[in-house]
Amino acid sequence: MTALPLVFDAPRRSTPPRHLADLDPADRRAVAGELGLPAFRADQLARHYFGRLTADLDAMTDLPAGVRDTLRTLLPPLVTPVLEQSCDDGATRKTLWKGHDGTRAESVLMGYPDRATVCVSSQAGCGMACPFCATGQGGLERNLSTGEIVEQVRQAAAAARDGALGSPARLSNVVFMGMGEPLANYKRVVAAVRRITEPAPNGLGISARGVTVSTVGLVPAIDKLAAEGLPVTLAVSLHTPDDELRDTLVPVNNRWKVSEVLDAARRYAQATGRRVSIEYALIRDVNDQPWRADLLGKLLRQQIGTKRVHVNLIPLNPTPGSEWDASPRRVQDEFVARVQAAGVACTVRDTRGREIAAACGQLAASQA
Fold first, then answer.
1. Does 119 participate in catalysis according to the annotation?
2. What is the pTM of this model?
3. 154 and 30 housed in the same domain
4. Is residue 3 part of a domain?
5. Is-contact 116 124, C-beta < 8 A?
6. pLDDT digits (tens, 9 = 90+) for 195-252
7. Are residues 331 and 352 in the same domain?
8. What pLDDT was estimated at residue 2?
9. Distances (CA, A) of 238 to 46, 89, 218, 232, 311
10. Which of 84, 87, 106, 323 is an active site residue?
11. Which residues are annotated as a binding site for [4Fe-4S] cluster?
């Protein structure tokens, strides 16, 4: 099996236009001055965008028409929906977005009895080259801007509020588990997390505890995130506890081995007080052997601690034409039982959207 080379720096493409969501409060006021407007006009615009979830300047009637025209430069269309699909009786909605330069990214809005969650992309494509992932096999096009990430969340929050999931709901959770490796786009992702979690008018006001940032294991970036003071959940895409297989399944393991990744996860849990999630896509006859379940439980108990970690077992959503397939239910159940026998919490993720290609990258690949 030949893996694609890892790509940490995105290829150079045209930069997305500056957007309100790219700016912190001080920057917003400075830009207002550049536009010849008093600082409070930028705050008014932010209250509409973050507080009322609207980017329609014509609806902002508390702003004079001339001011609205001037402020249009801060709300350029960054991501435009080109395809939307739904399933699960309307409780799962996937959107394929087109950027200003034609790049594609995906998000998935999911409704549950007690919450509404959106899974967002942080990059167009991905450079981590995991062979069982549609996004990884497509390669990296470019990083998404902070504004492009926040726009996915704002539009999902507005859709949930307006009943897109069947009845009005408040968006409560944001997971960075769509296209891309979030920590390879570190600066923009952290800025997006701040916009998502800060209260209006500076952000969308979603609790940091409702935000999850995933990574395949970029150890220096995990340590950097731990020092940010953002109590978000860290999700580590481990997928196997042994280096020999992980070198192939998650090629970044050739730089940072399993023990290094788990040590970084422990440091993150200690620094933030947040339990780390270990993501494990269960693949038939590849990483689902009983001995791997035993080893996983043992390593997590020893290196992180049973109270600081949770295993999120993911039944694989195969990509079209892939050699990979999901493990049988009996194998899955035994795997869960063995991890739990080590004292480590382990649950199976609720699968959504198989009929609408909801695994990250599948919809974009089908429309390429």
1. no
2. 0.93
3. no
4. no
5. no
6. 999 998 999 999 999 999 999 999 999 999 999 999 999 999 999 999 999 999 999 9
7. yes
8. 43
9. 39, 32, 11, 18, 10
10. 106
11. 126, 130, 133
